[in-house]
Structures are given as structure tokens and as C-alpha cells.
Amino acid sequence: MNPFDELESNVRYYCRRWPAVFSTAHNSTITAEDGTEYLDFFAGAGALSYGHNNPVLVEIAIAHLRAGKILHSLDTYTVEKRRFLEAMERHVLAPRQLDMVIQTVGPTGATAVEAALQLAQLVTGNRAVVGFDGSYHGMTYRTASISASMAGRTTSAHLKEFVALPYVRDVSESDLELLDRTLDSTVDGQRIGAVIIESTQGEGGARPFDPLYLRAVRERCSARGILVIADEVQAGVGRTGAFFSFEGSGLDPDIVCLSKSISGLGLPMALNLVRRDLDTWTPGEFSGTFRGNNLAFATSATMLETYWADSHLEKGTERRGVTVRSALDEISDTFGNGHFVARGNGLLCGLDVGDTQLASNIAAAAFERQLIVETCGAGDTTVKLLPPIVIDEDQLADGLARLRDAVASARQVR
Ligand SMILES: Cc1ncc(COP(=O)(O)O)c(C=O)c1O
Predict the structure, then answer these.
(1) Domains and CATH numbers, the chain
(2) Which atom of ligand 1 is nearest the CA belonging to 201?
């Protein structure tokens, strides 16, 4: 009996793309039970930015367990939570002059987005939400409803109080006019309470927004008392170089959703950063059993202390991002016939090959070359590259060479 086929739901997905049985992992390499080693340019859909089994964080986790420290704590006070809160203040909030409080929520990105939407409604009294084509915010009823990338899936949710604006790469007057009109509109009788945006879209195809547009969103929302929610679940925690993908753009969000890589070790953890004056929750108004993963607090605090006390990692990610982009440009020039588009921000990069089957064939050919890459974007035409941001530069070059080879072979098959 194959227990996966016999016992697991048909909904399983990634295992069909990568039909190996994985066993161990270190940094950017995962090893199957038959000993085959794969380079992982998917990194847990962005949850493993600090690599598989980051040795510094593994040591902290082992010490935590051996010492019998608290593991689960709801939102009671614990030593590890205090250390985590102080590390966030010292390494993330204070250096960026962010006067924000930290709301821990149940352990998924979707829960953080749910909480952000509810708070925006509480603060503004308005339920309707503006989002963007290609966005992805989760699989709960409300987060799926505001995930334009889910449209068309048979079971996707359809809350009416949502409107999706087009993705904006280079802002134009008509984009700004549409933004103004939309922010002033009502949706299903509801005024707009929040705009939610991924400054660099992940599932939408590694698409960074024009920073000028992000600034315009901020200004126009401020003028109307609409909250700006930055969904940094995939692009945050250093994925694009800076800790937040919106840094330097002027988006200046009111609420920031974080999850995926925030624990550093791939442990379940999510939180929102909330502008202090907007923190109008009453005690217990938003809850959840798994808001106190102390193992994750411990590894997260150490991740922040290890990687965010200086700009070394940020510069390294930017450098690696340039390496990836130039490799993708070269692949486009060589194989794209003018149809491929390389894009991205830091180490959230993609190669849009403009064809669903070709993108799928490239991912399959990559797997044959022991490289793990996923497809994403409208029509699944983009091959997404999301290696750990701590990847060894030789391994990065090796993975990019395997990708080139995979593109060359998939092109021949067509
Ligand atoms: C930008 C963004 N927001 C939210 C989510 C949902 O996170 P989760 O799958 O942990 O609910 C994701 C997941 O891919 C994401 O990429």
C-alpha cells in the first residue's frame, strides 16, 4: 500500500509536482529517502527564507526543549515572548521609527489578514476592501474572497464587499483616477475601509508595484480615513532585501501582516504590526488558541538578533537578487524570442514564459535536474524563484545553471 495514495486526500498538490519522499534538509538542500539531493528554490513557499534547519536556530530550539521551557501559552506572558517583543522593537520597529504594537494571532498568514481586515472595519466602521489583481491572501472564506488570484477556482469564496484594481507596474494618470474613483465608491452598499496590498506580489508572479503608486495609495487613503494593510506574509522578513518589501516606497502602512519566515525556522507563527493609535481592540476581541508558540518566539528572536542587527544579510540578499535577475535576463534573451519577461525584487523573482504548459514543463525539467521551482502568476505562466535568502552563492549559481538547462530542454520539447 502506498499510504499517500491510499490515505491522503486528493487535494494534495505539491507532492504531485515533486514526487519524492523527502527526509532531511540543510540550508538550501533537501534530501529524499533514496538519498537524492535537491536544491530548493521554493523554500516552503517563502516560509524558509533562513534555510532548512538553520543551525543557529536549531540549537536555540533544542536548548528550549531540553530546558523544559514553555511551548504553548495562548497570550499569557512568557520569558520567550518578552525576548521576542524586545527583539522586534530593537531590530525592526525602532530602527524604522515605527510606532506600532505587535498582535500575535493564530499561526497562519490568513489569520493575520483576517485580523487586519476586522481591525480596519472596527476602526473605520466600513467593511468594503480594495485589493489587486493577482493578489493572494489566504484560503479562509474572507481571505479567499479578497484574493483576486483565486478567482475562477470553483470553490473560491465570493464575499461581495471587495473590489480588485489592476496591478500597476508603471503608474499612469488613469491608474490614479481609477484609484480615486474606487476609494470614493461603495461596494454592495458599503464604503471602503481598507486597501490591502502586497508591495511585491508573490503568488501573483513576483510582481513589484511601482513605488510611486504605493505612495499614491498612502496619500489617497490618508485623505479619506481608509486604512492601508501591507500583506508582507510572503515578501516580508527580508525576502526582497529590506526587512519589509515596502521600505522606501512611502506606503507607510497602518497594519502589516507577517507570517511564513517570521519564526526563522519554518515554525507556525503569524502576527500583525498595528499603528499604536489604531490598536482599538478590546481584550479578547480577536483570539486564537495558537497565538503563543514559544518555540517560534525563541527562534524568531534569535533570527532577528543574528540577521537584523546590521545590514549584512540585506546587502547579501540584494546581491543575490542581482545574480538571479541577470541569469533570468540571459535565459530570456537566449530562449525567449522576445516572449519571456524576467522580474522580481530581491530574492522574490520570476520568469514569465507566457505559456502555462511551458512553465509547467520547465518546473518538471528542473525537478529532473534536482531543482525545485514552482509556477505562479496569472495562468500559471511564471516560474518562481524563491531560494533561501541565506543560500550559499555557489549553490545559487548551480541552481540557476540547472534552471537554464531545464528551460533549454523544455523549449525543445514544445
Ligand atoms: C501574501 C500572502 N498572504 C497570505 C498568505 C496566506 O498564508 P497561509 O497559507 O499561512 O494562510 C500567503 C500564502 O501564500 C501569501 O503569500
Answers:
(1) 3-54+311-413 (3.90.1150.10), 58-307 (3.40.640.10)
(2) 1
